Amino acid sequence: MNASGEKQTDVTSDVRDLRDVPLSLVGRADFDGIVRRILPGSPEVRRVPVAAFNSSI
Amino acid sequence: MSRPLTPFRQFVLKVHSRCDLACDHCYVYEHADQSWRGRPKVISDETVSWTAVRIAEHVKAHALNRVHVVMHGGEPLLAGPDRLDRIAAELRGHLDGICALDLRVHTNGVLLDERFCEVFAARGVKVGVSLDGDRAANDRHRRFADGRSSHAQALRAVELLRARPELYAGLLCTVDVANDPVAVYRALAELEPPRIDFLLPHATWDVPPPRPAPAAYADWLIEIFELWAADGGAPPVRMFESIISTARGGSSLTESLGLQPSDLVVIETDGSYEQADSLKTAFDGAPATGLHVLRDTLDEVARHTGVLARQRGLAGLCGQCRACPVVDSCGGGLYAHRYRSGSGFANPSVYCADLLKLITHVRGRTSEPTHTLPSAALDALASGFGGGNEVTHLAESQRSLRRALLAAVNAATGPAGGAVQERAWELITGLDGTHPGAVEAVLAHPYVRVWAAGCLRDGRHAGHLANIAVAAAVRAGVTAALDVRVLGGAVHLPSLGVLDVDPAAAGRTAWPETDSAAHPAGRTVRLEVSGGRIALDGGVDLDPLAPGEWPGWHPVRRLSAGGFSVGLEDTDPFRDCHQWPAAGRLTDDRVAAWQRAFAEAWALIESELPAYAPGLRVGLSVLTPLAPAPEGREVSSTARHAFGAVAAALPDGPATLALLIVHEFQHVKLGAVLDILDLYDEGDTRRFYAPWRDDPRPLEGLLQGTYAHIAVTDFWRVRRHADPGRAEAQFARWRRDTAEAIETLAASGALTPLGGRFVTEMRRSVAAWLDEPVSAAAEAEAARSARVHRERWTAAVSPRS
Ligand code: SF4
Ligand code: SF4
Fold first, then answer.
1. Is the pTM of this model over 0.90?
2. Which CATH architecture does the domain made up of B7-133+262-311 adopt?
3. pLDDT digits 0-9 by tens, B256-273
4. Is B573 in the pocket of ligand 1 (CB under 6 A)?
5. Domain ranges of chain B
6. Could you tell me if the CB of B76 is within 6 A of ligand 1?
């Protein structure tokens, strides 16, 4: 239980879990997303939608 | 402190209240609310002008950088091209220049022709079309009053838009489970829409939807999801993307799913403000607010109880939804679908069984193993604390980040690194299989990530990979030999220490760059490792973990207190990444002084700030001495890539060191949260007022500062018994400043739903402290200094004439 007595669920990150992936097998598909995510100054700033348009009115 | 209201960002402007079709599933005419009967057919120019004025004043009041307006009906094209042109011009006239205006029209397509398209092209209006799928599906409901099909007209409209892709917004399909989902999806996808929206037919618990099987809507949508996934997720389907986004902590893309506060308002043809159209399904008059565009501002609408009710996120849901494992993605479904006479909206969606099944299916099919954080752990961290368990979660995700970075460095620099780099990679990947603990102990050293990040940015120091491999080999106790990198006359073995190979250069702190055109690989020496010892050609042979064996070996020394120990890092060449310069190698006397201060500071943390101690035990691995601070100042720092490291110049007293440690460790924790979760929009470039800074701060800076100041406030709060006068003044000041900054964050409009939740928990901690009594003098001084700072700041940042 958390402070407000709410549900116990998980918040999911898009960071891949590589703890058990052998280092020799960590490939581009695994690291590309992480590198883009944590290295600022990547060519395109990641935008996360905070006020997306909803058409289902 | 009153909560700032959620500004509207989406405006549905009813430009015509009648329709040329007579769809039997239409919520405007066929459902409980019959208010259309009393409304003018067409919106008047005056109402349009007032609407534009109201939106513009709202944009200015809330510094909105983008709003969405959709011209809607009934059927908006019945208003005619000339009127739509005037409406679009009026809206653009008031809004272009003060924000980005995403202007759309949503039509059944029957009347769409070249003339309309010209107007929409000239005014930058995108067009969405309602289409329920293939002809058989579309004919089921979307007919003229005399029963004729509207399919051919709708298709013709879509073809016009396909010829003008800049106008084509997408297709909206209302689900009917009697239709063949494959035929529906194929028919829609064939038209290459930029986006498809599937809409569940509006229904309530009083008037439930037709339901041939227990989760018929889920089954129907899952069939489409499988086709869509097999097609690589194109064209975009908002419902599926929204589920995937929210499952990863992102935003919902539609009001019908997720926990985001509603930011949508409807303006009817007569100028009255209404809540979401879907409420027409619930009961007659349900969407009404009693407010009018001529008389009332949008802020007044935003304070309407019905609007507020749809902005309460998790707290606004019934118990069943709050306890539901998919609530982050579902959010109880569309508000209107929860309605039941008697209990009102305090129910799960009438589509609950479908939403649960669909969301569970989509999550299961799209998940590659990624890191997760229990909601309770996130809330605990967000409150400013977080114990051993919570920090362990963060530390575990850092392991993945480091492994990714290391592999990325090898991929980026391996080919140029030749045989040396290849052997280093072989050694480290081999040890990763046989001695994973040894590899992890080295990779976990905070400055390994700093090195990797720098190397990926500029390609320099790639040869350090060999030093990392050798350090792991030492810890593993294996036999290996490798050419390791020499920097500044020394060989650095991360987490272990530094070996002078050129004593003349010993003791330098600003290591010269050795990458040069003449020596692209930099200087290297061959190091042999065996049984935990290292040997260098020329007779050096030592145990790096047994200090004092050889004068040229400078191990990382350790500070310990109360069964807790951290490295005192004054050897690593990549530690000089802090805001202040790193100190050089410390003398034994200075180390002794650090040890005394650390022991006292740690005792103080454990006794007076016990909530912080377990997290520090797990997450703080290194203290990095900084060069002495200028007279009368304390300097301390963290670096985003150096998880686990806190850097500081040794302050005057142990209490100050305790304060610096808990303050800086807040940055470590929050940095690690931000490494894995999106709390705010990184593309938002605005700057904000921070009560402790003279310069306007970007959102991340404000968030970091505010989070750190929760601990600062708490520190002074508990210190009031030991240092009453000073601590009370500090407490009064920091709780006020921190609370103010929390409200700035909450009102920024730049937080993701998760970010909003995070800031809510921050607020919860500080709000409790605001109620603690302090002397009137301390309170007055805090208010005065806050006012003076704000005035000075405002004068400094406002443009000079
Ligand atoms: S086209 Fe739209 S507004 Fe017109 S009757 Fe059909 S659903 Fe209702
Ligand atoms: S699936 Fe049902 S219980 Fe879960 S959040 Fe949605 S409506 Fe509520």
1. no
2. Alpha-Beta Barrel (3.20)
3. 777 777 788 999 999 999
4. no
5. 7-133+262-311, 375-554, 678-797
6. no
